[in-house]
Design the sequence.
């Protein structure tokens, strides 16, 4: 499974982009998947506790990337509520409901993804490119969340 995401213009997105690739064991909390990172980032002025489905956030209190795709144990009706304020740094392009198949302890990774040519085809790549991305619509900063792949090329 791969969930591609469009990066937002935020300090957190910049910090995550510069640290790619990032991997860790998934943890779940209701319909939220998160994993710890080696990154630290303070809460931004627009950090929120309640997010919309498809928004990808960074949880400063836990140094973790988090994606809510439905109710957490503290959600009120119809909302996705985290335990504390998070920085939204990306928006999923693919359906985040796929995350219901992620289990605690499963390795997940955030890697670079890029738009290929003028088509709307995305390709995930572990090769990092220069952070300065052309502003043309054919090229756009993006990240992909996917199960980690070991050296033999199998998911794990």
Sequence:
């Amino acid at each position: 499974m791969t969930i591609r995401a469009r990066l937002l213009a935020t300090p957190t997105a910049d910090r995550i982009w510069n640290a790619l690739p990032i991997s860790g064991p998934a943890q779940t909390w209701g319909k939220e998947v998160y994993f710890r990172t080696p990154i630290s980032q303070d809460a931004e002025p627009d950090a929120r506790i309640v997010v919309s489905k498809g928004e990808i956030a960074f949880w400063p209190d836990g140094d973790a990337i988090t994606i809510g795709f439905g109710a957490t144990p503290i959600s009120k009706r119809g909302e996705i509520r985290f335990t504390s304020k998070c920085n939204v740094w990306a928006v999923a392009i693919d359906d985040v409901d796929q995350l219901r198949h992620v289990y605690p302890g499963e390795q997940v990774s955030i890697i670079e993804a890029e738009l290929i040519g003028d088509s709307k085809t995305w390709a995930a790549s572990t090769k990092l490119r220069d952070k300065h991305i052309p502003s043309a619509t054919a090229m756009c900063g993006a990240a992909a969340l996917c199960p980690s792949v070991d050296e033999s090329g199998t998911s794990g």
